[in-house]
Amino acid sequence: MDEINKLQGQILEHKSYLFSTDYVVIRESETGEPIPDEVKVNRAIARSEINRLELEIEELEKQVEAESEIVQL
Predict the structure, then answer these.
(1) Cβ pair 21, 47 in contact under 8 A
(2) pTM for the complete prediction?
(3) From 21's CA, which of 7, 32, 38, 62 has a CA 20 to 30 Å away?
(4) What's the CA gap between 44 and 63, in Å, rounded?
């Protein structure tokens, strides 16, 4: 469970970054001012990491569930 909590914390950090840079995306949509390349790259990395971490959590949860079922037997 500690590992899952750690991964969830990392997801929250990435989501926080996305949230903090949403204004740049909105600004581009509303005014046409381009998103800086660094922000584009970092947002793409954050989304990719969120997806990867969510899959990792899913696998860990399956392992915990399987171990719990073995213990109950």
Answers:
(1) no
(2) 0.86
(3) 7
(4) 29
| Of 66, 47, 64, 48, nearest in space to 5 by CA | 64
Query: Distance between CA atoms of 61 and 47, rounded to whole angstroms?
Result: 21
Query: Does residue 24 contact residue 39 with C-beta atoms inside 8 Å?
Result: yes
Mean pLDDT of 21-47: 98
Query: Per the structure block, which two tokens stand in for 9?
Result: 């914390």
Q: How far is CA 67 from CA 5, 13, 53, 54, 60, in A?
A: 18, 29, 21, 20, 10
What mean pLDDT is reported for the chain?
95
CA 43 to mean position of chain CA atoms: 10
DSSP conformational letter for 57: H
